[in-house]
Automatic annotation (TrEMBL), chains A, B:
GO molecular function: metal ion binding; sphingomyelin phosphodiesterase activity
Entries under PANTHER family matching the protein: PHOSPHODIESTERASE, PUTATIVE-RELATED (PTHR16320:SF24), SPHINGOMYELINASE FAMILY MEMBER (PTHR16320)
The species this protein was found in: Chionis minor (Black-faced sheathbill)
Protein name: Sphingomyelin phosphodiesterase 2
Cofactor: Mg(2+)
GO cellular component, one term: membrane
Amino acid sequence: PSRPPPASCDILPLSGRAIRYLSKRRQERVQLIGDVLRREGFDLVLLQEVWSERDYSNLKAKLGGCYPFSHYFRSGVIGSGLCVFSRFPILDTLLYQYSLNGYPYMLQHGDWFCGKSVGLVVLKISGIVFNVYVTHLHAEYCREKDAYLPHRLVQAWELAQFIRHTSKAADVVLLGGDLNMHPEDVGIRLLRGWTGLRDAFAEATRFEGCEDGCTLVPKNCFTVKSELLPFPLGIRIDYILYKAVSSFTVKCEELKTTTGTAPGMDIPFSDHEAVMATLCIRRQGQAADTTLGTSEPTLTDVVTEARTEVAVGLRAAQQQRYSTGRMAVLALLLLLLQAAAALGALAGLAAGQPFPKLSFSLLAFLAIGVLLLATGLHLFHTIEVKMLQGTEEQMRMALRALQERP
Amino acid sequence: PSRPPPASCDILPLSGRAIRYLSKRRQERVQLIGDVLRREGFDLVLLQEVWSERDYSNLKAKLGGCYPFSHYFRSGVIGSGLCVFSRFPILDTLLYQYSLNGYPYMLQHGDWFCGKSVGLVVLKISGIVFNVYVTHLHAEYCREKDAYLPHRLVQAWELAQFIRHTSKAADVVLLGGDLNMHPEDVGIRLLRGWTGLRDAFAEATRFEGCEDGCTLVPKNCFTVKSELLPFPLGIRIDYILYKAVSSFTVKCEELKTTTGTAPGMDIPFSDHEAVMATLCIRRQGQAADTTLGTSEPTLTDVVTEARTEVAVGLRAAQQQRYSTGRMAVLALLLLLLQAAAALGALAGLAAGQPFPKLSFSLLAFLAIGVLLLATGLHLFHTIEVKMLQGTEEQMRMALRALQERP
């Protein structure tokens, strides 16, 4: 309420929230989020996990007055869950789907079905061009044995590359979303180092909210307490990152998170705490070179570390490609054997009826089933191998470029 | 041979060729292409349909001397087939996979398995930044009843959007590849209109090669003659497009295509004729505004036409989503019915053995098979519907922006 209008002082509050599709009391919470967004009157709102397009339409209808511009990014079977509400006109959009995003057969995790992506919206506020990115990376289901780490690293790398290539004409770059990485994780260091984006939590002049800026906290009634046992304060996995690419400076004046339940209610807005930033953007005399965020020797280490993890994932994927291929070949051999036996029986070579018909046909169906399934998995792991190889090679190229610099 | 070096006069020859993976005499032709590329010494070579990574490695080993820089874009099950050879250092690369690319069950067409994409390489030649794009869009198998037109239009739109968003800091933009569209097709007009790219064939000062610049000609012994019956001269589906985005001008001095068989050989290099361009890039005093290639009222018509085609594809996809969903539900009902009957028989409700065991279990397996298949197809068509909806909405946004301009 005490915030001056952005046209005069270039302030941009930003908010990210998450809504689980199958979660408890979803409708009530969407309602609640709509109320708060209307009351607070942010300039820009980035939402993740709005899986239901109907929820988006409801929010859009409700918020049309204060956020006349909005965009919903469609992708995957369920949807990317990403959407943007803005007080300022959205000039252009682009969606980039990550090439790896978990496994379709891990139904209990379901990330594959969301078609995880990064969405870009281009805005112009007071003559300043903003490239705003919203994203949601693959979840981490088990920190000790994180099978999805290579996929998340590929996503972090593709996110960084996408930002670098698309933001060259922007004055200010903003990234908000659920990155599913702890602040010290290699993926975050890679993303920050390779794009030059800065972390609003680390830079903020004032901070108010959960301790250490955590966004997944035990006191939120929708979080799974057992997962947070090693982290009594919670973890910080939702971020607002930013940089100015031309003759501008960005400063985070204030960062806030929500803390548990909504005011006057018994439930929180979401299972993640929302992050809100007030940014101050100023024109400055000379252009600052902020292409790389980390000093180059450190960046070399980070890229090397990421590349090692991708290589580990690559070996696992190659192993799975091999074993699914072998399974498919075995099933095919069994089928051929059965076909030969059946032909033999038909030709009268085997006297009597050596195979009981029922178990014979059951076995044939089983073999066909295994053949189809193993072939599908083999194709999937072939794609996985290709994308991991591609990322590893890109990282190698990046390392060479870093080392060749004077 | 008479070409002066590009450092002094900014000339850039460009060549695109296609190699079919399962094609006749592939090895011999890869060999032939390597020989020609080494002899001619182009500055930049863009290849499509190099499906085999071994072919790429062989070419790379052979061409290392004259093209020290190269990149192979990995994607899909088979691969994107795209690669680039360059005399100048490749500074950066990015791959964008099209969100729609045919159907996995159309095995005879197989486009889905290639993971069709657009590859970007960034080069700096004499201080000029080149964004070079290489791509291969979905094939057209039947011009009269082109079931893939909506997918190809989504690809053309995504290609145009990708180029617009990533080329903002480039001085010169080049696009080369097999677009699988005739010059007057809506997809080409959309791509050219929305990006401002110009067609080297239309702009070339000198032209030499197949009549009308055709690249798929009946006299090439690898083409299917019956497909080209309505087009006695052949068709032009491989393009070199370009534009200068800042204070530069590009002029196509010369455009050539190969014509049938390779010199001194009985076979052509490829089933498509190669296109070679000599471009002259000059620095000019003031920046020209070339954001849109077509005058705006015409562009509005083109986007409207494309949107109509996408909407037709959307209705077909929704229909298929519905019928596959219904099929899955029917299969599930049959399974439940069978389960009830089996339970009934077990409980001794039905005296005797009403169902022959063999046909009962065969039916159950059939139902499971149909259920799995129909569910898979339903998910696939759900994704298709989402992407077509997303593209249609982006086109609607673009139309609104075009109409609002003064």
